[in-house]
Amino acid sequence: MKNNRLYHQLLQWDAYFFNFLRMSIFIVMAWIGGLKAFHYEADGIVPFVANSPLMSFFYKNADHKVLNEDKKLVAEYTLYKNQEGKVIKKNIDWHQKNGTYSFSYGLGTMITVIGVLVVLGIWFPKIGAVGAALTFLMSLVTLSFLITTPEVYVPNLGGDGVTPQYGFPYLSGAGRLVLKDIIMMAGGLVLFSDSLKKVIRP
Description:
mainly alpha; 3% strand; transmembrane
């Protein structure tokens, strides 16, 4: 009897659980979207954007190849990486010409708007459905980086011996970050379904 009462109480909390998911997605979107206004975050997404057939056209130098110090032909952006927390003017100047920062501002705005649409679903199911659908699509694009971006896998850098784990399926820090978007994708689908139910059966 007690278990039955607890079961019904949990069912009544169902709406709160969905709204907590909405708020969670909003926090992630607003925080990450807001950080896109800062150079270090804009620099960090360059490998993803430059290698993506869906987004590389936003950069002026995405397809440029140059010789590095080892005389190997590499993507030009690899020579202008700024380590997080480190400021190198030469690299910043290159990114400004590349369109790195202007693209990041636009992307950050879009991500923040999607987050706002999702959380508005608490009160406006139709708007929430749009936000949830966009969350799913955005996550789908992000997960495509697992196919297009070399930096998502551990590179074979050698050292004192042969690198034992590199390439697929050994995810780098960037790759592990991307893979987590599969949870965001699932959350978008769940909220899309919940919002549609509220629209159809208010």
